Amino acid sequence: MALLIRGGCIVDPTQGIHEVGDIWIDKGRIHRIVLPSRGDSAAAPGPKDEVIEAKGLTVIPGIVDMHVHLREPGYEYKETIATGTRAAAAGGVTTVACMANTKPANDQGAVCQFILAKAQKEGVVRVRPIGAISRGLEGAELAEIGELKESGAVAISDDGRPVADSLLMRRAMEYARTFGLPVISHCEDPHLAANGVMNEGLVSLELGLRGIPRIAEEVMVARDLLLAEWTGCRLHIAHVSSAGSVRLIREAKERGVAVTAEVTPHHLILTDEAVRRWDTNTKVNPPLRSPKDVEALHQGLADGTLDAIATDHAPHGRVDKEVEYELAAFGISGLETLLGLSLMLVHQGTLSLEDWVRKVSCNPAKILNIPGGTLKPGVPADLTIINMERSWRVDPEAFFSKGRNTPFHGWTLRGKAVMTFIGGRKVFHESEGILATTDASVCL
Amino acid sequence: MDRVAQKGWWRKDLLGIQDLSREEIEIILDTAESFKEISTREIKKVPTLRGKTIVHLFYEPSTRTRTSFEIAAKRLSADAVNISVSTSSVVKGETLLDTARNLQAMELDVLVIRHAAAGTPHMLAEVLPASVINAGDGFREHPTQALLDMLTVRERRGTLEGLRLTIVGDIAHSRVARSNIYGFRTMGAKVRVVGPATMIPVGVEELGVEVFYDLKEGIREADVIMMLRIQKERLQGAFFPSEREYARFFGLTLEALKEARPDVLIMHPGPMNRGVEIAPEVADGPYSVILDQVTNGVAVRMAVLYLLTGGARIGVAH
After folding, report:
1. Which of A86, A187, A236, B178 could pair with A400 as two cysteines, CB 3.0-4.6 Å apart?
2. For domain A62-368, which architecture applies?
């Protein structure tokens, strides 16, 4: 029995496809794409075949969110692998790469294996762990990076706890290169950040909040670009937030440094003006910056300096956010708004639809060197079916994620995932909710 | 009082000076002026706020501001309760919101809050039916301090329009500086700030102030000089090298004062570090209005309590 997704607008930049057609899926894999405009003849489905009508809908390779905090093990009150992957499926995301700042930190093979085992048992989408750079994320000694890779880690990062020691970062890059792993850097000089809670500028001055200056990020972006150039390691800059960082990365790419970079939907859409409402859901690290920075991020995304859009999904419990602004936890729950928010750039004309698919799917898969990001025949059928025109209101209470911490509460977004498929299985349907958990066979 | 009532005061809370209009500031200053006389009576008490419950919730140590609020409340016959950090539930790990909800459940009318975290008064004002008065939130604002400063200058000069105010010291970490910048600018004064660049916050020019790094230049032709307290414990070594050097370049001495107008007013929100930001001869000198500030503090806080509790609206006169 095969599955036919019929009459959708298929967008797959890896094959140069952007047109209406049919997708045949067999045994969980893409079997064939039928494009009438290319003279393909549409085969009729047999009586045993399942047909999904996708007329008027857009079909893309499943979204790969390369920056997610699933919080398990250790912070299950904020999120679990079960809830986080449900949020992903509902947001049209088929693969999440999860950061190492759990408790215990994912700094050894056993933790990686635990995460993968949990994901197989309770998860809904594919989970790709990111290992720690340093033991306990303490920035002192290297974690067991070789074993992490063997256990399934696709990159290493001390996300949330930037590596302040330049020598350790150099060694980490050299060591990671040995195993062919990219290093993902959360760039923030902790001394310059100086316990700040928002962007340093006029708004922080008026609100009397300690600022995190752009240079806190840019100093470390510059350092890590130089280290990557020196060591030859593949470097990925997480959640770029400032115009200066975009410029540094653009220059490094021009000289051939092996660097890629991501940006979050919230940094593309909000500025530090949002903090004036004292909504602790606007507290995020790196902080929301100025309109000038937002403009530079849009430009960087359009000209290819920024390769990927990733959420930095950082779910928190109410107790973490319903406190004084200075005391509130950093982070935004982003998986369920990724699609709707990032499509704003397509609707505005900043990104073509193909480029958007590259940023949310093809490029992150390539950066992490994992399957996905394509609908080429033979690959597992991970795909997202989108209604580009559907308007919907963001209601955190309806989130699958335990983290209701979003500054987009009440926003009306255009574009929504209506179905999400993992290995040819429908795991999410807009009106039916979560339909299935993955099983071992589809976890690659 | 009738005049005030006619103008009408509608705000539930006093969270900062930034969002006040010139008219609103004038209402408060006029009301404060009329309250000053009460403090000179033999029996310094009027029944205006009888039956009102006021809680002073102080998460930061304070002698002057808390005492001033307490005296203001008592002179208006309100029931005032003081809660300071060491005796509160904070040590038991209760969240601020829970503390506030508990107080509200006891039917308080006004909550006066001081907190090290900016924005805390906003957070409380949003959830509490009671009036919230900001008695200092982090580096953000200290509205009653700016009001008493404005009252003090207005008494001496008749108006703030066209005056030059120079604020000297740690502007970056000062709520007093922010509130005064907003207030004096709204009232038509020109504002300068002076200090080492480490203490001048990024973007301060956008508030419409002029920045000087040289004290003598900064106070030239000034009508009012406001010296800020230097927090030695926190800042020394990081923001300036030593008290000695700070005093030398940014301390207000009789020598430096020669640059200012002969009738300049010297202010300080207290507590002073004599010999650091202000020389004793200056603090005690003829131009100093530092103790007038303290006296006016009580009047301004009486006015704010009166206006927020609806005294003007319900027409209760003292």
Report:
1. A86
2. Alpha-Beta Barrel (3.20)
- Look at residues B90, B251, B166 and name the one whose alpha carbon lies nearest to residue A323: B90
Please give the Cα distance from B121 to B109 (Å, whole number).
15
CB contact under 8 A, B96 and A211: no
Q: What is the pLDDT of residues A164-212, one digit of tens each?
A: 999 999 999 999 999 999 999 999 999 999 999 999 999 999 999 999 9
Locate the domains of chain A by residue range. Answer: 3-59+379-437, 62-368
Instruction: Show the tokens assigned to B217.
Output: 């230049």
Sequence-separated (6 or more) residues with CB below 8 Å from residue A16: none
> What does the pLDDT look like over B15-52, one tens digit per residue?
999 999 999 999 999 999 999 999 899 999 999 999 99
Give the 3-state secondary structure percentages of chain A, helix then strand then coil, rounded to 5: 35, 25, 40
Q: Alpha-carbon distance B34 to B46, whole Å?
A: 13
Length of chain B: 318
Q: How far apart are CA B306 and CA B310, in angstroms?
A: 7
Task: Please give the Cα distance from A284 to A241 (Å, whole number).
Answer: 11
Q: Which two tokens stand for residue B182?
A: 């907003």
Tell me, what's the ipTM?
Answer: 0.89
Residues listed for chain A: 444
Q: Residue A25: count other Cβ atoms within 10 Å of its Cβ.
A: 24
The CA distance from A33 to A19, in Å, is 11
> Locate tokens 């009232």: which residue?
B187
Chain B contact for A295 (CB, 8 A cutoff): no
User: pTM here?
Assistant: 0.93
Amino acid at site B7 = K
Structure-token pair, residue A125: 């989408």
Cβ–Cβ contact A322 with B under 8 A: yes
**pLDDT tens, A279-302?**
999 999 999 999 999 999 999 999
User: Which three-class secondary structure state does DSSP give residue B193?
Assistant: strand
Task: Round to whole Å and give the CA distance between A289 and A212.
Answer: 10
- CATH class (in words) of the domain with range A3-59+379-437: mainly beta
- Cβ contacts of B136 on chain A, cutoff 8 Å: none
